[in-house]
Amino acid sequence: MLACPAAAQVDMGLDLDLDPDIFEFDPVSVSHVWSATGVEPGGQITLAVVLGIEEPYHVQAHRLEDQNLIATTVELIGQPDVVQASTPLYPEAIRVPFQTPRGTKLIPAYGDGTAIYIPLSVTGAAAPGELNLAIQVTTQACDDRNCFKATVEQIGVALTVVEPGTPITPTHVELFARMPDPTSGLRVPFFGWDFEINPDVTWMLLVVAAVGGFLLNLTPCVLPVIPIKIMGLSQAAGSRRRTLVLGLSMSLGIVVFWLGLAEAIWRIRDFETTNALMQKPEFTVTVGAIITMMAVGMMGLFSVRLPKVVYAINPSQDTLAGSFGFGVMTAILSTPCTAPFMGAASAWAATQPDPAITRATFAAIGIGMALPYLVLSAWPALVHRVPRTGPASAVIKQVMGLLMLAAGTYFVGTGVAGWTVEAPDPPSRLYWWVVGVFIALAGGWLAVQTLRHAKACVWPRVVFTGLGVLLIAGGTAMGIRLTDRGPIDWIYFTPERLEAAEMSNKVVVLEFTAAWCLNCHALEQAVLHRSEVTTLLNRDDVAAIKVDITGNNEAGSRKLVEVGRRAIPYLVIYGRDGRVVFSSDAYTVEQVTSALGTAIGTGDEL
User: Tell me: the pLDDT tens digits for 243-273?
Assistant: First the structure.
């Protein structure tokens, strides 16, 4: 192990006055065993990491009540693409006494023989032979009075993939009979309100997935298209039955898209999350072109007869095919803005050995996302006030068309950035100026037309003119802020640069991002660019490393898998000893500054 020698005592915040030289050995050993002699392509197997702990010592539990202690963690930090791992399963902790100057305190801990389990699945594309994996084990050993400093050990593990039909024998049956329920332990980080659900029954997972799907409608990727659909439904609001049918058709398009993603994740090698779509420039450019076509049609610029294929791409929303296609397009628009709830649920489902879990979870995401449109179509009175004809209707269509042009530019721009980027250099951001210009034009057109047509109505003039001014300001600010390199002295990731930072004994911060990831940009602007955060990130003893996976950055994508993730955004903060101090895909300023303070040594010492 990477155990510290003498002076291994750790300050637990308990006012201990003890001799640090009494510990000169490491009482913890780590071994591992598989649940079977091998696994077929397309099969499942479980790895057990077993802790050998000498008496009278114990190690800290995975979940702690004292933040000055170090939790036991097991992470899969490296595996081939054909191997998918689920969340490690930890046993129930025991309570052990710990003597302090203020009396005896019972703390959660693990004893000798504790096993942590990692369920894995191997895709059908795996070739027979040995696959090399790597795990990282972090422990902190204590007796009833003193604690060692935390130790981190990285272990290579070989997994045998056998020919289909080869006899496979279960091993260590008694050990694996103690494995916790593999449906437990879904951690959902949500801006400081992190929690973990224990989906012993599937409906808990499905509820989380549906909530995540619903939240996608509130992201900047999807929110602009909701008024477009409301306008489409308002055209049919005179017939409740027809409105409901069109709403159901759109909802079906949304659900079908997410079910299609589930099938792709389950069946296609190297397709593990919605990121797989956005990583392909040809996909984003195609989507951008279709959105642009829809925007041009919405603004009434199809004044000449075009080839039939154009109208097939952009059918009217008052048809079943048009509503279904609009639902698919709405779902596609959501892919750069994966919500935290949905991201946790989909990532968990994608690693489950049963494809029914994956399909059910992604179907729930689609249903949650489709819910607002179902409500609007079931109660058409909610949209009957939307103008269907006249100047107001035309202005709304023109403004929404300009906003859709902004969305189309965004997709095309990220695709071009992916084609032209050369890792590790950052991708071009110039397309954000074009996006910002279209948004500002939408605001300017809304303000001008409101002043022109609403002369006798005071409140509409104030509200919509004000909204237009906000769009102008927002588009301008977007162009300035998203093309600026920002206040952080980022190091752009290569394995060699990361290794150099680690060898220099620096605190390492990895930000996983991409040009197409709007949530990444939002978190960076709102959290990482705050002055209290940038001050810490720009310290000489901190290496702020940006891992941009836009385009063909294979090294960055591999690193994302190594840290146990498939989706972005994601932030990881490592202490000087290589231990993960903090990781999350939905974080706050307070969380980041606290974690950096701990890692640097300016905050609460571990």
Answer: 788 888 888 999 998 888 777 766 654 555 5
Which neighbouring-strand residues pair with 29? 52
Q: Within a domain: residue 34?
A: yes
Please give the single-letter amino acid code of residue 556.
Answer: G
- Token pair for 274: 């919605």
Strand (E) or helix (H) holding 219: none
Which two three-digit tokens encode residue 476? 């301008």
The H-assigned helical ranges of 268-300 are 275-278, 281-298
Contact between 206 and 348 under an 8 Å Cβ cutoff? The reply is no
**Residues 250 and 331 reside in one and the same domain:** yes
Q: Is residue 5 part of a domain?
A: no
State the residue range of the domain holding 550: 491-600
- CATH number of the domain enclosing 585: 3.40.30.10
- One domain, residues 475 and 554: no
pLDDT for 382-426, tens place per residue? 655 555 556 777 787 788 788 888 888 988 998 898 888 887 788
- SS3 string of 42-108? CCEEEEEEEEEECCCCEEECCCCCCCCCCCCEEEEEECCCCEEECCCECCCCEEEEEEECCEEEEEE
Average pLDDT over residues 513-536: 90
- According to DSSP, residue 279 is labeled T
Cβ atoms of 415 and 433 closer than 8 Å: no
- Whether pTM > 0.70 for this model: the answer is no
On whether the CB atoms of residues 327 and 250 are closer than 8 A, the answer is: yes
Query: Is 605 part of any domain?
Result: no
pLDDT in tens, 217-227: 877 667 666 66
Beta bridge partners of 303: none
Confidence label for 116 from pLDDT (cuts 50, 70 and 90): very high
**Quick one: 52 and 119 in the same domain?**
yes
Is residue 245 located within the same domain as residue 328? Answer: yes
| Structural domains counted in the chain | 4
